[in-house]
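Lab manual, section 2.4: Encoding a predicted structure.

Procedure: take the sequence of the chain (179 residues), apply the prediction step described in section 2.3, and record the output as structure tokens. A sample record is shown.
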Amino acid sequence: VEEEMTQPFHFYDQLNPYIREIETTIDQNYSCFFYGANESGKTFTALHALCAAIDAGYTGYYIQFRDYLSYHNEANFQFDDDQSDPMSHLRHCHFLVVDEIGKESSTTDNVKSAFEGLVKAREANHVPTIFCGNVNFMPTDRWKAQTQQEQQHGPPVFERKYGHSAYNCMFRHFRFLMF
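Recorded output:
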């Protein structure tokens, strides 16, 4: 992936078909996790894909993860029918962008539960999602290949913060792009 950072055209060659053929992206449930440094273009690129989906007639939403957490915490108490529940719209829309993963103040069981629920709901509904964040998504097998001294800080940050179940679901069904 580092090679892609030094060759921007190669990087965009991978993303352009994703955006240009948004119908295929949605039909095939191609989900992505964009991660990297601040101001590296993750959100810009995700919003470009979202706009392509909306222009093609699909429903789509952008939400920051902290706002999603607020909806998650309030959803069970305020909405009597599924039609007015914002959580239902976020779980079922054709295309969703969730930004600022990793910026929440602390990772609690509630955060893990909310994140895992969203990942699994979107996957079960076969609708693509783009998550954007600064949290490194190192594959577990690469972590296991490290020396014991390198492993002393535990499993990869993403897996520690958001749980093994969400990590495995994303690892099986998402594409990961480092910006």
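Check your result against the sample. The radius of gyration is 17 Å.
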